[in-house]
Amino acid sequence: MNDSAKEKNFKTVGQRMKAWRKSMSFKLKDLSDKIKISQGSLSDIENNKCLPSAKTLTNLCLYTDLNICWLLTGFGSIVGQTPDKSTSASFYKEYMQLMQDKKLKELMDRMIRIYNHEEASKRANLAGFLTGADPGV
């Protein structure tokens, strides 16, 4: 976002969304396609007719670098930070889709429980198994 846009005090979520979108040179259609909502819904958000849904906020996190805290409050950096800059939004999307598989989620929960709460020998066994299962690591 350019300096003049940063200096303006955008009082609403809609004003902030529109200012950010324009600063990124997204057309309404481009952003609505990217975050998987209709142009009308995005227009309604930008014109303060409604607030973004949880799904829209999630998609903004997954598919853009917009800082949701800034969008909702006006405070903080406009651009969000991921914990590891090399991690892409597509990884998070794929992970969230995989966690919809109940059996896989149960296995992941067991692995995390072993890693966090069991003795070192069990953690080493788990690491050895994973290394053997995927020797390309």
UniProtKB/TrEMBL annotation:
SMART domains: HTH_XRE. The lineage of its organism: Bacteria, Pseudomonadati, Nitrospinota/Tectimicrobiota group, Nitrospinota, Nitrospinia. Residues 17-71 form the HTH cro/C1-type domain. It comes from Candidatus Nitrohelix vancouverensis. CDD domains: HTH_XRE. One of its GO terms (molecular function) is DNA binding. It comes from the Bacteria. InterPro entries: Cro/C1-type_HTH, Lambda_DNA-bd_dom_sf. This is Helix-turn-helix transcriptional regulator.
